[in-house]
Amino acid sequence: LKRGVHIIVGTPGRVMDLMNRGNIKLSTCSYVVLDEADEMLDMGFREDIEFILQKTPEDKQTVFFSATMPKPILQLASRFLKDHKIIAIKGKELTVEKIKQYYIPLRANEKDTTTLRLLETQQAQLKVIFCNTKRKVDELVSLLQENGHLAEALHGDLSQAQRNRVMEQFRKGKVKILIATDVAARGIDVEHIELVINYDVPLDTEYYVHRIGRTGRAGRIGTAFSLVAGREMARLKDIMRYTKSNIEKQDPPTLIELNALKRNKLQDEVNQILTGDLQHLEDLMMAFYQQGLTAESVAKALLFKHLGPEVKEEKVVKRKREITNIARLFLNVGKHSKISPGDILGAITGETGLPGRKVGDIDMYDKFSFVEVPAEDADKIVKIMNRSQIKGKSVNVEIAKGK
């Protein structure tokens, strides 16, 4: 800066800091570009942006780049842009033709298993998984790492240095799976991403376009899967209308498909190994022969070690519930209370003695939840639960009107 530069690129906070120190003077600035304007406002930078713009000349040229056009953006444009024009992308350009799009309908508690199976069955080098919350990103990273996957998180709680480190490892292939929120994902610009999984259906239809656009770049074919549970189907239909595309339904991968994939992969590996020098294994094979073992029996044992027991066709088993007449309870706690369906189930069964199999569906929203219980036990549960807490939070429980 002391030597003199033509262009300064910075975050609002850092630019303001240098302005206050006298290291940056914007009185002669000719151009101002605000990138990711909608995300800047969502992250609470409006006052900082206004402060910076007020210190620039009136006759400068100003450009706002924004994926969406919410009211605050238009307000800023009216205030700081002279005779501004809005240039909008055409609807037909929203989707990328080279991206295969699928959705898998399932229950919310099946998302983890389905994600793991998709990662096994989809032979992709670099993969990105999107979640709607930072908490879910961290939970999914832990799950994948426990299952032997090279996965890292990318969300707003990471410092810039941490984000740079994760992205560098991802570009070099040291990290194979990136799990991100929408806000953090704007900086993902890697050509060789072959698979995108929407663990959660995005809350904003335009986010879907940004998510799947991370794959299918540089003329390559990309694949995008969306895991859709319950009421997320309504959002997916909005996305299909918005993008004017038909997202194809697909069943989740089965254990039989996984096993077939393992068998084929092992067969290829064995064929590759047999082309090498195996002379040093002759003594070991002779030892097996002296124990009365044949080459066939040794091969079967090694195959069993790699593939495990026989995998039979899965049966779809729904949770057995002993409910005939159902009552629906309303609870004044939800996702924002950092409470999970398991916490609610545990509280009800623990406080009331009701067996878990008698508790039906638990539907959670941001600020409240609904729980299905036997109608004959509803009044008793309401009475007991209104004197209790869930994870230290007092709850108010009522019998919901209607169904």
What are the key terms here?
7-stranded parallel β-sheet, 4-stranded antiparallel β-sheet, alpha/beta, 15 helices, 15 strands, 403 residues
SSE topology string: HEHHEHEHEHEHEHEHEHEHHHEHEEHEEE
Please state roughly what percent of the residues sit in beta strands, choosing from under 5%, 5-15%, 15-25%, 25-35%, 35-45% or over 45%.
15-25%
Identify low-pLDDT runs.
314-322
Number of strands: 15
Helix segment tally: 15
**Derived structural class:** alpha/beta
| Overall average residue pLDDT | 83
Distance between the termini: 65 Å
Overall geometric form: globular
- Structural Rg: 28 Å
Give your account of this protein's structure.
This protein is an alpha/beta fold. The protein has helices at residues 12-21, 37-42, 46-54, 71-80, 111-121, 134-146, 160-172, 182-185, 205-212, 232-243, 255-274, 282-290, 295-307, 341-352, 378-385; strands at residues 31-34, 61-64, 99-106, 126-130, 151-154, 177-180, 193-198, 222-229, 248-249, 326-331, 362-364, 369-374, 389-390, 393-394, 397-399. The strands form four sheets. Strands 5-6-4-7-8-3-9 form a seven-stranded parallel sheet, with helices on both faces. A four-stranded antiparallel sheet has the order 11-12-10-15, with helices on one face.
